[in-house]
Amino acid sequence: TSVVGYISDSMCGLKHMSGMGDEKSCTLACVKGGSQFVLADQDHKKVYRLDKAGQEKAHEFAGQKVRVTGRVTGKTIRVTSIEPAT
């Protein structure tokens, strides 16, 4: 299964706080502060948690639109791959 969305953080989810710079800066700052990376599917207004492998892969895509491939169980994705989405 593939889901397209933006790599965000568990504190901000679908909408980043204002005054935190761009989406990438905000996401990385929140993750550094203890949040986890999530996939924010803005089209369907859903936020998915990413498994441990997903957390590691998501770092380089912070704030970007991506396609996450893996197994969706409830609101968690067991990530196989993350790649830029067009």
Please describe the topology of this protein.
Elements: E1 2-9, H1 23-32, E2 37-41, E3 46-50, H2 52-58, E4 65-73, E5 76-84
Parallel strand pairs: 3-5
Antiparallel strand pairs: 1-2, 1-4, 2-3, 4-5
Helix content: 10-25%
The largest sheet, given as strand count, sense and whether it forms a barrel, is: 5 strands, mixed, barrel
Q: Specify the structural class.
A: alpha+beta
Q: Low-confidence runs (pLDDT<50, min 5 residues)? A: none
Number of helices: 2
Order of helices and strands: EHEEHEE
Shape: globular
Number of strands: 5
- What's the arrangement of strands in the largest beta sheet? 1-2-3-5-4
Strand content: 35-45%
Question: What this model shows, in words?
Answer:
There is one protein chain. The radius of gyration is 11 Å and the shape is globular. Strand 2 and strand 3 (46-50) form a beta hairpin. Strands 1-2-3-5-4 form a five-stranded mixed barrel. The protein is built from two helices and five strands, in the order E-H-E-E-H-E-E. The relative contact order is 0.26. It has 86 residues and is of the alpha+beta class. The longest helix is centred in the first third of the chain and has 10 residues, at 23-32. It has helices at 23-32, 52-58; strands at 2-9, 37-41, 46-50, 65-73, 76-84. 20% of the residues lie in helices and 42% in strands.
Quick structural overview:
By secondary structure, this protein is of the alpha+beta class. It is built from two helices and five strands, in the order E-H-E-E-H-E-E.
Which short descriptors sum up this protein?
86 residues; alpha+beta; five-stranded mixed barrel; 2 helices; 20% helix; 42% strand; globular
